[in-house]
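Question (not urgent): is this output format expected?
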Amino acid sequence: MIKKVTFTAVVLVILVILFVVKYRDVADRFNPFLVKTYVYVQIDKPGESEPHGRVAYALTGFDAEGKRKKVRFTASTQLPKGTYLKVLAKGAYTEAYERVDEEALPKAFER
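Got this back:
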């Protein structure tokens, strides 16, 4: 009986670890220990088309303190090169983004 419970517990732990590794953005979305932060990015390359018609972006930006952060998000269309965005991120999960003017960027953002 104890062996079955131990085996089941080990299998569940392995499945949870695999889920977190594969679907990190989903795990981060519901993680209560992560804080939402704004990350400022500039579109510097075209996004990659996804099968369901969205365009995926993987960019590196900066938060208000100047810390470098990587963000991934999708858009319904290609965004113009040079566009500045303010991305609301929580770990690997991106909740929202909005276009901002260059004047609205924090001083820590490297232009």
